[in-house]
Amino acid sequence: MDKRVDISVVVPLYNEEESLPELVAWIDSVAKGEALSYEIIMVDDGSTDGSWSVVQRLKKEYPAIRGISFRRNYGKSAALYSGFEMAQGEVVFTMDADLQDSPDEIPAMRRMILDEGYDIVSGWKRKRYDPISKRLPSKFFNFTARLMSGIKLHDFNCGLKAYRRKVVKSIEVYGEMHRYIPILAKHAGFRRIGEKVVEHHERKYGKSKFGLERMVKGYLDLITVTFMSHFGRSPMYLFGTLGTLMFLFGGVTAVWIIVDKIYSQAHGYMWRGVTEQPMFYLALLAVVLGVMLFLAGFLAELINRRSPDRNSYLVDEKIDD
Predict the structure, then answer these.
(1) Residue 226, Cα to own-chain centre: how many angstroms?
(2) 237 closest CA partner among 294, 183, 187, 311
(3) How far apart are the first and last CA of the chain?
(4) For the chain, which residues make up each domain, given as ranges?
(5) For the packed helices 213-231 and 236-266, what is the interaxial angle rounded to 10 degrees?
(6) What's the pTM?
(7) CA torsion, ordered 75, 81, 87, 93, to nearest 10 deg
(8) How far is it, in rounded angstroms, from Cα 317 to Cα 321?
(9) Which of 87, 174, 188, 280 is deepest in the core (most CB within 10 A)?
(10) Helix (H) or strand (E) holding 291
(11) pLDDT computed for residue 31 by the predictor
(12) What is the pLDDT along the chain (321 residues), one digit of tens a residue?
């Protein structure tokens, strides 16, 4: 049985050996100042420096540290998912290991979860100490995520977030989905999502581990999570609707072209052969694509209904006689 603690702090890390001692001491100071029982779950995502050795050394000084070391680099989402599985805290925090997130925000964010009833509280780095080459793409990315998800957060990318325990136990994070955890949580039924302006610090050690490729991956994952949120359990609604519309459009267009040719020929008007009209071939293409989309939806529905977790629903509470 899990041993519950007040807070769990999940820290994914990759080549952050210099910042770890300072970060752990900071979290420890904040937790003790608030008289909170805590655990720090450090997930080493295949570091090539001495990060894991530092974690092992810190464990001797801070017994509240728990750790996971990956054999290779899997990405932040995998690190968070593994940390969430291990977390035992009533409130679970995520925080980057580079000291740009402030542990001083923990008490206020915890109160928002426990006293104000939020399921998630996301940090908002209103004043960022990042170059403009990172800030501008981030603003556009956040605007797009707000528009597609309907969640009014200014900073989906902020690593500092607080979750009610049941949230992290109810979602699966993969790919580059870590920035879309609020969307995944909303899809799982956790709709009380709040935001808090947090302090952002300049990077003290090392360098950023994220390049421009994360923007491409991020947008692809945004499309994926949006599709899964709306059509994950009923793909036929999307593919079947699109397929039917394309089939009807192509069929009606082809029939109209044939009828128009016959009518014009019967009344002595100028006419063109059906196969001489480009629109006829576009109509046939629409018919074929419509059938293919409909069949894709049908097959996806069959696969989905045969999935072993088809009837696994997220139960919030249960009373047994």
Answers:
(1) 9
(2) 294
(3) 23
(4) 5-231, 236-305
(5) 80
(6) 0.73
(7) 70
(8) 14
(9) 87
(10) helix 278-305
(11) 95
(12) 456 789 999 999 999 999 999 999 999 999 999 999 999 999 999 999 999 999 999 999 999 999 999 989 888 888 999 999 999 999 999 999 989 899 999 999 999 999 999 999 999 988 876 666 666 777 777 888 888 788 888 888 888 999 999 999 988 887 677 888 888 888 888 989 999 999 887 777 766 655 556 666 666 777 777 777 767 677 888 888 899 999 999 999 999 999 988 888 888 888 888 888 899 999 999 999 999 999 988 888 777 666 555 445 445 454 454
Distance between CA atoms of 40 and 87, rounded to whole angstroms?
A: 9
Q: Which two structure tokens, joined as six digits, stand for 201?
A: 């610090």
186 closest CA partner among 171, 199, 176:
171
Pick the CATH number of 5-231 from 3.30.70.360, 3.40.50.10860, 3.90.550.10, 2.40.320.10: 3.90.550.10
Q: DSSP assignment of 25-82, as one string? A: HHHHHHHHHTT--EEEEEEE-S-SSSHHHHHHHHHHH-TTEEEEE-SS---HHHHHHH
Segments of the chain assigned E as strands: 5-13, 38-44, 65-69, 89-94, 120-124, 161-164, 193-197
Measured CA to CA, the distance from residue 106 to residue 103 in angstroms comes to: 5
